[in-house]
Amino acid sequence: MATTGTNPTGSRPAPDADPIDLLEGWLADLSSGLPGPAQARRAVLTELRDGLLEAFDAHRAAGLAPVEAAWAVLGEFGEPAEIARAFAPELAGRQARRTVLALLGTGPLVGLVWGNAAAASHLMGNPTRPGPPWLWPGLPAVVRVVLALLALVVATGVPAGLLAVAATGRPGRWLPYRPRLAPTAAATLGLAALTADLLLLVTVGASAVIMPGRLVWAPVTVAVCASLARLVLNTRATRRLLVARAALT
Question: pTM for the full model?
Fold first, then answer.
C-alpha cells in the first residue's frame, strides 16, 4: 500500500526515508481514485507531480531537511482522496465524451455491415414499400421484432449520447451544473449499444435455428465480429462510466 507521508503507526516518516518515494506514494494513492481516460489521468498526475516537486524545492531552499520538506508538501496538498474528488467531474466528463463519440462514430458502420448481412441473406423483405422497416412485407417474424426493438434502443440511446456531448462541450455552459449528467447520459448510450449488439447476435442464433440454410455466412460473420468487438470494448467503457458516476456527488 502506498504511503502519503506517514508510517503505519501514524507518525512522521523516518529521517532516512526517501522523500521522492513519499511524494510518489501520494501520487499513487491519488491515481487509484481518478476516473477518466488514461491520457487525461496522466496529464493530471504530471501536473501535480510538477507542483509537488516545485513545492519540495521551495521548502528545501527554506532550510528544511529532505524528509521534513516532503512532509510539509504533503500537508499543503492535502489528502489524495480529496484531490481526486476535485478532479473527478472533469475527468468523468472526458470519459463520457470519448465514449459517446466512439459509439456514435462506429454505430453507422456496425449498422451498415448488419444491413449488408441481412440483405445478402434475403431477410429484408420488400424495402421499397413506404413505412418503417419492421412493417415491410415479406420480413420474417424474428427480424420484424428485432427491428422494432432496435428502433426503440436507438431512440433511447442516441438522444442520451447527444446530451452527453452537449454537456461536455460549449452548450454545457447553459445547462445546469450536474456532475453526473454526462456520465449518466453516456452510460445510457453505452447500455443501448450493448442491448443492440446482444439483440443482433441473438437474432443470428435464432435465424440459424429457425431458417437453416438461409443465412449467407461470409457477411454474417463480418457483422458478428463487428458486434462482438464493440460489445467487449463498450462493456469495459460503460462499466468505467458507471463507476465514475457512482464516485461523483
Answer: 0.81
